[in-house]
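Predict structure. Chain length: 375.
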Amino acid sequence: MPELDLTTDHKSLDDDLAARRYFAKFERITRLLTGVAEEMEKDRSFSAMDSAVLEGYVRAISGTFKALSLKYLVSGRIDGIGQKHLTIDLHDSGFPIFQEIVTMANDAAQAGKHLDGMPDALRLKDEMVRQIVGERVVPTRLQYAMSQRLYYEALLKGGMYFAQMHPQAQFIADVSGGRKGYLVHWAVYDSQLNVPVVYLMEVVDSGRKALPLDERRWPEAQAHLMAQSVGGLKLLTIAKGFDTDFDDLHPKRLRRLHLGPMYSSAFTLQTGPIREVLEEARSPVGEDWALAWTIEELLSERVEVEKGWFSSVEREVFKLDPFSGRGAETGATRITRSLILPQRPFQVLAEMDPAGFRDVRKFVVGKEGRVLVYG
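Prediction complete.
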């Protein structure tokens, strides 16, 4: 059987104006995600801590897009260099492909060295003025050099979303019996789906030493969670594995947030009702998009005690979706799907009322960027 050519799912933005429109679209989307998090905090889908954590990852995603926009600032206007166009996932994501994020991380590790070997910004500006005034030509190569300098400066400043965002633990509250509750959060850029994925796990710690300060358990827990952060694994598999491997760490709630895909008639190929909605809306530039948002959630239902020869261990029993036997299939207690979109596409979606979108929560961008919730 021949291998699939994954490159057919990819699209190179080889025009600098198209690339700028793409980055402007995502700049707006990431800005709006903060409003979505605030609305979910209002209806108690998120706690204030959840919202703050998510906003941190959204800022990092925004930083990544900003850095990539600088890297590809003169995309399509210069020949004779290496990778000069942003590559995005055309079908199932709308985001940059995984390799773009990996390359950016490698660039970040060597940003200082690159900057040391580059002319400073003032010198580049002076040379550009000389070319414009003296030679009356567009200083494209100098513009490229400036874009690369700005790119590496952004990377050196930090705050980006990389392929792996290692686990952090934040104290929630003391629990009865001298135990402590933590929110452990981490994130990845899914290499198959090409979308950011954020994990939030509420853990009760019955160990003697606070988890983030424990030199033995915390590095082991971090490594375990990163190894299990694969899109194909069910939440039930991840939670049970963690519960089994760490006798004094008790996962009470695990959530996985898929921040994508992004749909846009200008940049992606989509099928089904979402394609018809975007085509029918005929939205102006900047309004032609919809972002899917999925939350998988797994809750602990009760605790069972396993007794051994010399000790006993608590094990979590997780609650699975009781409807139609789907719990075993999804490995989750519930799955919530949402869609963030501008007002015009939402109006078309409401008029068409496709069956597959009736249970999807809609976050609609109203006037002055205010986010309104429907459903």
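Summary: The first helix runs from residue 16 to 42.
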